[in-house]
């Protein structure tokens, strides 16, 4: 569900610093960014807004990224929403489980800004952008 002007990105992570850092990186290149700190809040935002890409932390207390993704994928308007998982502790099978749940990609933390932007641009089918103040 592509926005007409600046793409809208959802960032979901239980670590507020991570959300702030990712939000800053994405806002620097002109994306609209919404932030949620847990799965239920993310689902609430998804129900109320159109997103072009979602970044979800794989491991969160309560509802993890896998469960949130499964629930998002059940919403007809978000069947094709690109969802990229973020994880600090990659465990064996995480990549496969995330793809089975419906993820479009997988990034390890700490997030490399260039890799993050490359992932986003890939899912938006745009050339790679660089931050304005890089």
Considering DSSP H and I runs of 4 or more, what fraction of the residues is helical? 25-40%
How is the biggest beta sheet arranged?
Answer: 5 strands, parallel
Order of helices and strands: EHEHEHEHEH
Quaternary status of these chains?
single chain
- Percentage beta strand: 15-25%
Name given to the CATH homologous superfamily: Response regulator
Mean pLDDT: 86
Structural description of this entry:
With 134 residues, this protein is α/β, with parallel strands linked by helices. It has one domain (8-124): Rossmann fold (3-Layer(aba) Sandwich), CATH 3.40.50. The protein contains 5 helices and 5 strands, in the order βαβαβαβαβα. It has helices spanning 16-28, 39-48, 65-73, 94-101, 113-124, and strands at residues 8-12, 32-36, 53-57, 83-87, 105-108. It has a 5-stranded parallel β-sheet with strand order 2-1-3-4-5, sandwiched between helices. Strand 1, helix 1 (16-28) and strand 2 form a beta-alpha-beta unit. The longest helix has 13 residues, at 16-28. It is globular, with a radius of gyration of 13 Å. It starts with 7 loop residues before the first strand and ends in a 10-residue tail after the last helix.
């Amino acid at each position: 569900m592509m926005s007409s002007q600046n793409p809208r990105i959802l960032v979901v992570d239980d670590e507020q610093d991570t959300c702030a850092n990712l939000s800053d990186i994405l806002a620097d290149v002109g994306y609209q960014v919404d932030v949620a700190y847990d799965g239920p809040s993310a689902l609430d935002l998804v129900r109320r807004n159109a997103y072009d890409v979602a970044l979800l932390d794989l491991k969160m207390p309560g509802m993890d990224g896998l469960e949130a993704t499964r629930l998002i994928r059940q919403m007809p308007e978000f069947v094709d929403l690109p969802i990229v998982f973020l994880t600090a502790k990659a465990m064996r099978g995480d990549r496969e489980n995330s793809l089975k749940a419906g993820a479009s990609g997988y990034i390890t933390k700490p997030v490399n800004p260039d890799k993050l932007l490359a992932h986003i641009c890939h899912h938006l089918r745009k050339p790679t952008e660089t931050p304005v103040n890089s």
